[in-house]
Amino acid sequence: MEKATRQQLKKQNRDLVLKIFFETAQISRAEIARMTGLTRTTVSDIVADLVSEGLVNEVGIGVSTGGKSPILLSLVEDAHTIIGLDLAYNQFRGAVVDLRGQIRNVISLPVSDTTGSQAIEAALGILDQLVSSEKDSLIGIGVGTPGLINSEDGVVVTAVNLQWKSLPLGKILSERYKLPVIVLNDCQAAAMGEFKFGETLPASRNMIVVRAGHGIGAGVIIDGKIFQGDGGSAGEIGHVVMLKDGGQLCRCGKTGCLETLASVRAVVQSAQNRLENGETTCLKISDLPITVDRMVEAYQARDRMVVEIIDEAGKFLGGAIAILVSTLNIHHIILMGEMTRFGDRWLDVVYQTMMKSTLPHQGRDTHLHTGTLRDNDVILGASALLAGNYALLMRQPSP
Amino acid sequence: MEKATRQQLKKQNRDLVLKIFFETAQISRAEIARMTGLTRTTVSDIVADLVSEGLVNEVGIGVSTGGKSPILLSLVEDAHTIIGLDLAYNQFRGAVVDLRGQIRNVISLPVSDTTGSQAIEAALGILDQLVSSEKDSLIGIGVGTPGLINSEDGVVVTAVNLQWKSLPLGKILSERYKLPVIVLNDCQAAAMGEFKFGETLPASRNMIVVRAGHGIGAGVIIDGKIFQGDGGSAGEIGHVVMLKDGGQLCRCGKTGCLETLASVRAVVQSAQNRLENGETTCLKISDLPITVDRMVEAYQARDRMVVEIIDEAGKFLGGAIAILVSTLNIHHIILMGEMTRFGDRWLDVVYQTMMKSTLPHQGRDTHLHTGTLRDNDVILGASALLAGNYALLMRQPSP
Lengths: 399, 399
Hints:
Chain A is α/β, with parallel strands linked by helices. Chain A has helices at residues 3-23, 29-36, 40-52, 116-133, 169-177, 186-197, 259-262, 264-276, 292-300, 304-328, 343-356, 360-364, 377-388, 390-393, and strands at residues 27-28, 56-61, 71-75, 81-87, 91-98, 103-110, 138-145, 148-150, 155-159, 164-167, 181-185, 207-212, 216-222, 225-226, 332-336, 367-370. The longest helix of chain A is centred in the C-terminal third of the chain and has 25 residues, at 304-328. Chain A starts with a helix and ends in a 6-residue tail after the last helix. At the A-B interface, helix 1, helix 2, strand 13 and helix 10 of A face helix 1, helix 2, strand 13, helix 10 and helix 12 of B.
């Protein structure tokens, strides 16, 4: 057996033991051995590691079943916190989260024109404050950011809005704070947040979260884990070409991408253009630049032009979701992001289009909801990954 | 810990031990215990089960490292065979396959107009012959069939070509032959076949197989397993709407589905229509009905009309594959089915369209090949599932 396989086995056994700690209040080493079929020695070695990492501690003495009374161990959940950081389009938002997803502290910062090294400074500013407030209990930092991320190496390959390219964000943060760091795509983080802490629980361990805001992207949960694909960017539906001919130029260089048709940016731009072209609408030239608030008002007031724009956007999003339903046949789909502010009518347009564009049995069994975590989805997801993805807890901070 | 979890652990340990048998020529119980970290008792219990199932046997005595000389065990691979059955559009094809994917015996039957109970009879005819020839070594039957399949219950929910609806095929076969049976979608089976036995090995444990023949479908392998989605029909790309307006009516009731644009059926139909409308082409009215052979010839001869039809079909398929690349970001994609007979030029059209319709980093890292197993993909995949999916070996035949 090769070395890689041995290490996999070691990790697998560790995960198994840690899982039992997450699921039980108190337990002895002997009981763990009995439950897992692992040897006492293997279990003791794993437990010793977990104790030395501060994740598990001895909490009492159990009842003897003949020999020496067993020592009971337990997960040290309250003593551990994680920082979740959401580097969203218009604001950076950081918070301290405990192992069960309770948020203790939130710092947010508007960043509409902050890019490059300024954006790094802004992120560090938030983290400095959060880290100093939580020094002793922190076990790691989880960062969700738009763009293409190499989570394995903690590198932001490209994040267009922030003008980051090949930025070793994970290394920068782990060196500065001496903590394990996870960096991942914000939609993927949001999906994990909804999966772990959202109100609507999927029947299976699969789920898709589609975020339609300034950009559009999805996070795919398969068997309870984020599915990133081979290149890290699974769920990148914003750049699926939905209009074969005559679509608008996208920031990616193609035309007709979903983002140019169904995002907040797209609908605001479309409203502005049509207003400036003199179309009849309750929006006024004095409203320029048009805000989402103003669009939502006009949509609720059934302004003909705005209804056309938003319903059209909903149809394109529904068509894209139909593609996800056809290819993945995952029954539980959550919609998030600023477009959800257009409410039930918009959601219904999305749903009806999805139904029309899938096979009957696929559409019928698909549940489409809006998410419940709102602003905290990315923060909770990024921190849940650090708490739940036991493998990543093994990463040691740089010396 | 709940009962379910205990059983999961038991299965996990069994899988681990069986995996070691698949990977090593000969091994002792003590060595397995050392490699897995499981107790000697746990290992001995598992090995006893495997021996009593005839999957493993004692083959010799190893060198002592101090105490008693260890007994060496090995997988009994030659003594076990599986029947793979491919219920394809125009022919049913069954074969006997050993645990390493060697095909021993093939029976095929043309079935172009065979549907309903006649189709069941045809399948049973093939199986009767194969079962009687291999009686003692058979450990199961794997069936790949077009349509929507509930693999868990072995039910063909719908198979339009065969006019099967809610057919308990798994039950029918397991009762008749007293063997474990797996029934699954043919594209999903083909994907497993290519993954296990194809020449081009993916770098990761993810792969997509797209079959473009009479119909179009895909099989998605994630982490070495077939991903069926929550409803069993993941990979159903044939009915993704690729033409928003003015597409042809599909047999599913929608218009503009990929199948109506890029399948063998679609290109043959298109050629016939255009020929009958008097378009200039090397095809002749006397060629009607047009065969795929004739289309391939005409394509190779660069017949303008046929080139237009096939390249257009290739573009739509490329667009659909771009969607798979964007949503799943799996780097290894295999093309199979009758459309691959149009060769490298068609493949290049598919590839170029895929590249144009994905983000640069996603397209660049995607490898698109044609499959190598040809007619045996479904048979090998369905049988590999029985051999490789150890959980299913535990299913007992009906008494």
